[in-house]
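Hello,

Our lab assistant flagged a job as stuck in the queue for most of the afternoon. It eventually completed. Since we weren't sure the result was trustworthy after the delay, we are filing this so someone can double-check. Below is the sequence as submitted and the structure that was eventually returned. Let us know if re-running is recommended.
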Amino acid sequence: MATNDTIGDMLTRIRNANLARHQSTEVPATRMTRSIAQVLKEEGFIKDFEEVGEPVKRNLVIALKYQGKQRQPTIRVLKRVSRPGLRVYSNRRELPRVLGGIGVAIISTSSGIMTDRDARRSGVGGEVLCYVW
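-- returned structure --
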């Protein structure tokens, strides 16, 4: 099924799989979803991801991460900020701090997809894609 908001679709699939305590979830592979999955992996929110499928229709299989004996999801909240109907941009001085630095804001910059901390360090702003904590 074709979707206009691939990022929102990805975040919703991860959120739903977390609620159902699934081991992994599958999302359509695009450069943007690959980059977001890479940031989530680097920040320790997911175990790993891999690309599977035919060359024409590729998917990302994202292995989710849980903590403790009750298998509490590592990702507590996954919130989409900028969306197709309302884009949210932030310059380098106004980059958001999620939960006072505990959470992560994923930013699309001219230097690629990165966290708010990396964007501050690089001195670049961009589109605020989502918040994760």
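-- support follow-up --
The delay was a queue issue, not a problem with the job. The result is valid. The mean pLDDT is 96. The chain has three helices and ten strands.
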